[in-house]
Task: structure prediction
Amino acid sequence: MNSEPELPKQTVASLAARKGKACIPALTAYDYPIARLLDEAGVPLLLVGDSLGMVVLGHPDTTLVTMDDMVHHTRAVANARPRALIGADLPYRTYDTPEQAVSSARRLVDAGAEYVKAEGGTEILPQIEAILDAGIPFCGHLGMLPQHVVEEGGKYRIKGRDDEGRTRLVQDALALESAGVFACVLELVTPPVAQEITTRCKRMLTIGIGSGEGCDGQILVTPDLVGSFPWFTPRFVTPRARTGEAMRQAVSDWVRALNPG
Ligand code: KIV
Result:
């Protein structure tokens, strides 16, 4: 088997120590085999992303993902016992108040998550503080917020292009860092703004997606990277494999072999 040298079990502290040193690779995982393969390939940071709504459950966006969906998939990923730190997304409308945020986060932790992630800046600070006060590590998500894309007219727009957007993003990132957030996904943020946040945040890790190379880490939706959801690939991703096509080919070869001639 072609696997990377084993990593020690990853923690918030071991990942935080990589700030400013090595780029942190992060990928989404939704089930046991993916989590196990990513772990064997040496990925230190996993996320059970609510992107599973689209790439696993066949929904048009992330807003239909439920708490039960997230618990089910987080459990499957945790069953792989990866050395990677496992995180899970709080789905849409499951963190409207601090009390609800803590009880939702606890359900994900009980299912095996070692950190939780939610979308938003200062507008969800009371929820973030309540989660941190409950002793649960938190990862932020700023920039393009997929859970709000329907409200914004269904377009996945780049953030931080004008002065107002840039200032808001930087202020949100600094507020999250002051609250004790250990990492923050920056999705579709203009590269200079992502770079500025990465430099100004001295402790909080920035994990970019479609936000340039200046972040502390890079995250991708695994099916985008390995071509297992071939019907849509974001513009900023170059798939490194075409597993969907390989599967189609293997299955059609088998179907033909059963009825030769
Ligand atoms: O849901 C998800 O997969 C995510 C990543 C794109 C960061 O939030």
Notes: Residues 12-258 form a domain with the TIM Barrel fold (CATH 3.20.20.60). Residues 163-179 form the longest helix (17 residues). The chain has one domain: 12-258.
